[in-house]
Amino acid sequence: RILRIVRFFKVFRELWLIIIGLCNALKAMLWIMLLILITLYVFALLCVMTIRDSDGIYPGLNPVVERDFAEFNPYDYFATVPDTMVTLFHLVVMDEFSAFAKPVWHRQTWF
Description:
By secondary structure, this protein is mainly α. Helices cover 70% and strands 0% of the residues. The protein is rod-shaped. The model is unreliable at 64-69 (pLDDT under 50).
């Protein structure tokens, strides 16, 4: 059976080239995903240190009492490093961008 499969690929050389190309592309995509993951991790650490640990800037900041969703609460998006990585991924794909970007921009502008 294995010889039949090898013969099948020898007959369809173009198919074999496509399969090799896909395998090489997967290898490159894995490296790109690793690079994106490392970048998200580093920026998640920075966001946790600057946004979540900013005392007194956000009026909705109270992790113990029930959260008031009318005000921005950084613990909703920046509570832990994995939560922050998900938030930054949403930033990259422009999903829910205005939910956390506008309050942060108005409260913590460095310009």
